[in-house]
Automatic annotation (TrEMBL):
Keywords: Glycosyltransferase, Membrane, Transferase, Transmembrane, Transmembrane helix. Belongs to the UDP-glycosyltransferase family. This is Glycosyltransferase. GO terms for molecular function: UDP-glycosyltransferase activity.
Length: 494
């Protein structure tokens, strides 16, 4: 792309699961354009980010002042990772106070560039207020969603059509999203299940989600071909473009220091995998933010053992314990499980962190038991790995719906941290996906089809641009044409 050097501002909400996709997007834009990038966040998050930016990158990290104790939060807590669940909403509410400082920051950027505004501002789905800043300063502004189109469409529709506590059956359809299948109350994240329209979450979401209407569009870390119903939902609902530009993922080396402590070296992992036959290993991980209950963990372990399959399991302490503390296998796993697993060579228990990308790309890996966070899903799909879904929170429940009902690359095993899980079901789901059954083969076939779709979407060759590459170009064209329009108006006025 030959264009003049422009500035692009990115600002994610202070939450690891949001900062990581934004960083991936920033690096992706940097690689594909010659634009300069300003990455905004609060001081402690910026400090952490300094270690994750590769040395060759020229992304400019900029701090926005924030003091958590001014908002009734413990001192020095600037990331939801450092907060118990009931305080997460308070950090969200506090983030609204960043508006004046953010406006000032953009004004300074404009001044530094002799009156030339940034080409665009890309903000978090939680920063509905940012559209006001962008409008006042005449800058093109988009929201970036690290969630799937389908997941976010469910989420948006659910918040905009509260409450769901009053539905008369356990299953209901979404009034403004008829393309989606019915939602079961066990698929509702806690805050939506508890919402009555007047609680803090409802008030925050209703206002901020309405703020999206003033945005110039939404960027999605997804691929048009398998996620179109969610994308169409937003195109119709907001009357704005939805650009599907994914998958943009962080490479393993850029992921530190986000929870890489502990764990296992990629080399050891690959070495272990290489002793296993083709398509024989199940990879189990619920991400760095989630864990299951002690009771569920026992059943899962029993099921894994009874399935007769090889496995790599990223273990975290169960619900009720510090998720980042050491794992006590004697207490939380069936008696002798750890020894049997080790002696038979059938399983690898990994504490805290595993080299996910290396594992998913290994030919010995057959399936992925996952919480279906969208980043994990994109990684699995990029390597053609079918999934066994166990969603835990937020829009993960709807990702499973998409993957199971529309894409056909997933079966659901359980929902949430309190449902009953039986080891017999663990065994049957694992064998359904991993054995040479008709369903298993069909899922593998579809997963490898999706892998090809993804490769195509990201292809950028002489004479051929994949859908995601083209969408990114369209996004920049839209920003540039707004810029030209503003310049014409300004010249006309002068
Ligand atoms: C699946 O494969 C396992 C061996 O890995 C075998 O013991 C089991 O009987 C198979 N189950 C089905 C349903 O085919
Ligand atoms: C743009 C917008 O509507 N922002 C709102 C987001 O939510 C907070 C808390 O409810 C409001 O104070 C903001 O006005």
């Amino acid at each position: 792309m030959a264009q003049r050097k422009e500035n692009i501002v990115l600002f994610p909400f202070m939450m690891q699961g949001h900062i990581i996709p934004f960083l991936a997007l920033a690096l992706h834009i940097e690689q594909r354009t010659n634009h300069s990038i300003t990455f905004v966040n609060t001081p402690l998050n910026i400090k952490k980010l300094r270690y994750s930016i590769p040395p060759e990158s020229s992304i400019n990290l900029v701090e926005i002042p924030f003091s958590s104790s001014d908002h009734g939060l413990p001192p020095n807590t600037e990331n939801t990772d450092a907060l118990p669940y009931h305080l997460v909403i308070r950090l969200l509410e506090a983030s609204v106070s960043l508006e004046p400082a953010f406006k000032k920051l953009i004004q300074n950027l404009i001044e530094e560039q002799q009156g030339r505004p940034p080409l665009c501002i890309i903000v978090d789905i939680f920063f509905g207020w940012a559209a006001n800043v962008a409008r006042e300063l005449n800058v093109f502004q988009a929201i970036f969603s690290g969630a799937s189109g389908c997941g976010l469409a469910h989420y948006y529709s659910l918040w905009m059509n509260l409450p769901h506590r009053k539905v008369d059956s356990d299953e209901f359809s979404l009034p403004d999203f008829p393309e989606a299948s019915r939602v079961h109350i066990t698929q509702l994240p806690t805050n939506i299940l508890e919402a009555d329209g007047g609680d803090a979450w409802s008030v925050f979401q209703k206002k901020n989600l309405s703020g999206w209407m003033k945005s110039d569009g939404i960027l999605f870390n997804t691929v048009e071909q398998f996620d179109h119903i969610g994308l169409s939902y937003f195109r119709d609902k907001l009357g704005r473009p939805a650009w599907s530009i994914g998958p943009v993922l962080l490479s393993a080396e850029n992921r530190s220091p986000f929870g890489k402590e502990g764990g296992i070296s990629p080399e050891l992992c690959i070495e272990w995998l290489s002793t296993k036959p083709l398509n024989s290993v199940l990879y189990v991980s619920f991400g760095s933010m989630n864990t299951i209950s002690a009771k569920q963990m026992m059943q899962l372990a029993t099921g894994l053992e009874a399935s007769g399959k090889n496995f790599i399991w990223v273990v975290r302490p169960p619900v009720g314990f510090d998720i980042n503390s050491d794992f006590n296998a004697k207490e939380w796993l069936p008696e002798g499980f750890e020894e049997r697993t080790k002696n038979s060579g059938r399983g690898l228990l990994v504490q805290k962190w595993a080299p996910q990308e290396e594992i998913l790309s290994h030919k010995s890996v057959c399936a992925f038991l996952t919480h279906c966070g969208w980043n994990s899903v994109l990684e699995a799909l990029s390597h053609g790995v079918p999934m066994i879904g166990w969603p835990m929170a937020a829009e993960q429940f709807f990702n499973v719906k998409l993957l199971q009902e529309q894409v056909g690359v997933c079966v659901e095993l359980a929902r949430g941290k309190s449902c009953e899980v039986r080891h017999e079901d663990v065994v049957s789901k694992i064998q359904l996906v991993m054995n040479e059954t008709q369903e298993g083969n069909e899922m593998r076939r579809k997963a490898s089809q999706v892998m090809k779709i993804i490769r195509n979407a990201m292809k950028d060759e002489e004479g051929f641009k994949g859908s995601s590459i083209k969408a990114m170009d369209d996004f920049f064209s839209a920003a540039e044409s707004k810029r030209q329009q503003t310049e014409i108006e300004n010249n006309g006025a002068a």
